[in-house]
Amino acid sequence: MKPARIDDRALPPLFDIGPLWTILWGRRLLVLAITGAALLLAVLYLAVTSPSYTATASMLIDPRDARGTNFNNVLPGIGSDSAAIASQVFVIESQDLLGTVFESQKLRDDPEFSSRGLISRITSLFGGSGSQDAAFRRFQKAVSVEREGLTYVINVSFTSQSPEKAARIANAIVDRYKASLAGERETANDDVNSLLNDRIKGLQKDVSDAERAVEDFKSQHRIVDPNDGGTLQSQLDQLTTQLIAAQGDADKAKDRYNQALAAGTSAAGLAKLSEILSSNAAANLRDDYNQRATELANLETMYGPRHPAIGRLRSELDRINRLMAGEAMRIRQQLKANYDLAVQNAGKLQDKLDSLRQQSQDSSLAQVQLRQLDSRAQAARTVLDDFLKRAQETSQLQGVQTSEARTISAAAPPLQPTWPKPTLLLPVSVFLGLMAGCGLALTLGPVRRPEDAPLGPLQEAPQAVEPGKDGAQARSRSQPAPADFGEYCLPGVAGGTALANIKAMRKSLFETGNEALSLAVLRLMRQILERLSDHPKPFVLLVSSMQSSAEARLAGAMVGIGLQRAEQNVLVVEVGDLPHRAGYGSGMFIDGASGLRTVVAGRAAGQDPLSRDRNGLRGILAEAGNAFDFVLVVAPSFSEEDWDPELFAKADLTLLALNLSEKASDAAGLIERHLGAGQLEHSATLLIAQESVQPGKTTMQGVPSKAGDWRRGAIARS
User: Fold this and answer.
1) Is residue 621 a contact partner of residue 530, using CB atoms and an 8 Å limit?
2) What's the rounded Cα separation, in Å, for the pair 91 and 108?
3) Are 61 and 177 within 8 A, CB to CB?
4) What are 214-233's pLDDT values in tens digits?
5) Which among 710, 6, 495 has a CA at the least distance from the CA of 701?
6) Which residues contact residue 266 at a Cβ distance below 8 angstroms, ignoring those fewer than 6 apart?
7) Contact assessment for residue 210 and residue 380, using Cβ atoms and an 8 Å cutoff
């Protein structure tokens, strides 16, 4: 279904102040009486109520942690998140903290809190402790702790009959909270110190056992401390260095010995031997030999080879040669001995190095186990050092930690009471009394007068039931009436037919200058839409009448044109014997008078009686399900023979068009007798009045107020 476009600016207001003001003015004495009673109660309350004073102390929960040292606090600060600050409100309101303040301020015997009522006195007679608990509960109710928005400020308020007491207790609660914060830190330090000292003793024993296990393992596997240079690896390194040096010495000794063998025993060879191995004897023998050889050469030049001195010199040279050969042999033997000694030392070092290498290979597993034991010992020492350091830090933190809470505004005795406030209570009592009086007046409704005979939608209308009619008793009874959709004055043609009157109405609706009638139709569309319950399309509207069908056809045409102007797809179904529809057949056609798509359901003049079943309403509704938003059924009046109760059962809303001589109460009785009281909820009445005009002339009628005057005249005539 397309949404109905109805201009709300052209419709009547949903809330009309005029009738309400009429009711309130008619019951003004009741409103004033209730307002005066409320004001009197407020004055009495002010007279009997003792004033109470509220003192407020403000403190700041500082999230910053003041540090005098680099030590970490045992108990960190409250924190800067919103949940942590909000939690402190509940801490201040806790029973433990308030109970401490309650006892320290000696409020148990204070008359303001310990005054006992009848119930508490009866309880105390049976040994109950209800009076003490009641006093503390009254004290708790007087305490108010609130956070100032999303800030770090907390306001602690206390309400009392004495301003000095209120300020004193509010400050006491703040002081107790600050003391509890400091006490929590000191207690936490003491607890941590005790735990650390107990744990340190066990850690010291663990470290001692681990170090002893390391030393026992070294002793068992003959592993020397690396700092002493006695490990296998250090010994291997030292022996390797010594072996390399010994092998070098052996090679040098071998080279010297080979050089000595190649030098020979001559003076030149002896000179080479003296270079290899320094010898004073070899140098002296070489000098003597050179000196004697020089003298022999000189004497042979002077005296010849046969001189006796020459023989003597040659004998000395031979002796010197023998001495030189002996010295050369001695040098060679010494070099040989040095070579053998170097080779022997290198062999010993090689044997010792091989032995240490074998021992190193055998002790690999022992080294692994030693490293594991040493790691355990080192870990135990590290943990012990951390515990010793933390124990020393916590012992020094005792008494030097600051509190996060500090007072920024101490509570002072208030000068003005917080309750009761006359400037607030008196205007509020007047306002509440006025509202209560107006509500009661509107509930009671307008003041009824004897000459009033109210008739309207959803009201109970008294109706006298005639004896013998439908078995009703001879007494008056009340029944609900259909909804009243108003009164409409429609233009028509003097002496014209129903089709001519419909044409005149349609022309007036679309003619400039007749806005009053258009607005009235739009109001009617709004009333119809408000009475419908939402369901899949189409909506079925049934228009009928009490006596004559003329009003029903005219009202149906008005409703159909109004729905069409609201952009709804409308199908008009005319039911009954319709002589004026002779010749239209059984199909859908455009009505020339209303301009609406129309279907005739029933036997028109000249049709076969069997066509009544073929053109039944049930089939028409089934076919119109997806093509139309509204199906407007124009049914015969209640007085005609073609009236069928099944038509009303299929309708979402039944509209009864009345003329000036018919009453809504009569329509309600007629619907109840023929269809049952349940159909009244889905029914409505609208009064149709016609003003006859000459053909070719337009009318400016259609205002409901004028038709209302006609209706009142008709009622008076009846």
Assistant:
1) no
2) 22
3) no
4) 888 877 876 765 554 456 67
5) 710
6) 324
7) yes
